[in-house]
Design a protein that fits this description.
388 residues; 14 strands; 13 helices; single chain; 40% helix; alpha/beta
């Protein structure tokens, strides 16, 4: 049997090797390594794919979040709400810009921002919210949009894990994740569903003025070369990465479909296991499964059932990842406002019982069978030990 891995970027590359190699070689031959025509073409193609007016490429998903916030004319001390169960970048950019991150717990079913708690935390200083479309499905954007309209708030969607997921409004209309807020942002980190061969990111917007400002900020605040209108930064998607992304964008629908098929395979295998809760699909969103994350419940002991299972899977050659081992409010960098253990119980519990299993486009049926058998057999044995 082939080795089981969390991702298989090499296997994915081999399937489109000729296309990728040709795309890279064309950039090398042109020597247009920065802001070359491949960047412009990728921007046009991604904007068309998403159905959004503007795509602004940049150097990373973190840069995309920072540029978005810099474009919104916020002032030091303004509050920006963010879910406490997410990667640190979502809060990091808030703090870097001298804004105040306001942590919000997450929904126990979808793991995305708890809209009710977000509304309860609104103050006169709250100016924006960063909903994170976690693991591959959208946050409740219709509810957030209504709050944003009522309280004059800006929305910056963190779409790094959900590019290609669709949000379903109550009127039946559907739009892609990242196209509903003032800005959408994404990362092209190699392990994302649409990933390049290095760092890369982008912003999306339908607002003419915000697009113009974000483009300037990403390019040293220049309106044209050597004319700096505002303070900016240097954040670019290089031409080779754009060329690679152009190729992979053609396959993104297939990549997302394969991930959904694997998730369904896992669902059926784990559905009858009492200790396992499979991922919940929100009624309002499709899911593209950048991660397949189960919750492993069990009686408390010196070592949690989740951690015992993870250890046994590793011994069997099956990797797994905990996204995330510690919520933001318990991280040293973000111990603010007196938050401590118990402040955000849902997020804290997810850190204790969440476990992400291998999922990628190159998985074989024998690998999947091996994984689900190992999970099932080990949980049965571990549950028996707990009972004794």
């Amino acid at each position: 049997m082939l080795k089981v891995s969390m991702v298989d970027l090499h296997g994915q590359y081999l399937k489109i090797k000729d296309q990728i190699d040709q795309a890279i070689q064309e950039v090398i031959n042109s020597t247009a390594f920065i802001n070359g025509p491949q960047v412009d073409l990728f921007v046009e193609e991604l904007a068309s794919w998403l159905g959004v007016k503007y795509v602004i490429p940049c150097g990373s998903g973190t840069d995309a979040l920072q540029i978005a916030l810099m474009s919104l004319d916020l002032s030091p001390g303004d509050e920006v709400a963010v879910p406490v169960h997410t990667y640190a970048a979502s809060a990091e950019v808030i703090a870097l810009l001298k804004l105040k991150p306001v942590f919000v717990d997450v929904d126990p079913l979808t793991f995305t921002i708890d809209v009710k708690q977000f509304e309860e935390k609104l103050t006169s200083r709250t100016k924006a919210v960063i909903p994170v479309h976690l693991f591959g499905q959208c946050a409740n954007m219709e509810a957030l949009g209504k709050l944003a309209q009522r309280y004059n708030l800006k929305i910056v969607e963190d779409t790094a894990q959900a590019l290609g997921a669709k949000y379903k409004y109550s009127d039946g209309s559907q739009v892609y994740a990242g196209t509903m807020g003032d800005f959408g942002t994404t990362s092209f980190f190699p392990t994302k569903n649409l990933g390049c061969f290095g760092d890369g990111g982008a912003l999306f917007t339908n607002d003419d003025l915000l697009a113009k400002k974000a483009k300037m900020i990403a390019n040293h605040g220049q309106s044209k070369k050597y004319y700096h209108e505002i303070i900016g930064c240097n954040s670019r998607l290089d031409s080779i990465q754009a060329a690679i992304l152009r190729v992979k964008l053609q396959h993104l629908n297939d990549y997302n479909s394969i991930r959904r098929e694997i998730a369904s395979f896992y669902d059926k295998a784990f559905l009858q296991i009492p200790a396992v809760k499979i991922p919940v699909r929100a009624d309002y969103s499709t899911h593209i499964f950048n991660q397949y994350t189960i919750l492993v419940h069990g009686r408390k002991s010196s070592v949690s059932l989740r951690d015992q299972l993870r250890s046994r899977l590793l011994q069997a050659g099956i990797p797994s990842v905990v996204y995330y081992p510690k919520p933001l409010h318990l991280q040293n960098a973000y111990c603010i406002n007196g938050y401590g253990v118990g402040s955000f119980p849902v997020a804290e519990r997810l850190c204790e019982i969440g476990l992400s299993l291998p999922i990628h486009t190159e998985m074989r049926e024998e690998q999947l069978n091996y994984i689900v058998t190992a999970v099932n057999q080990n949980l049965v044995e571990l549950a028996g030990k707990e009972a004794n």
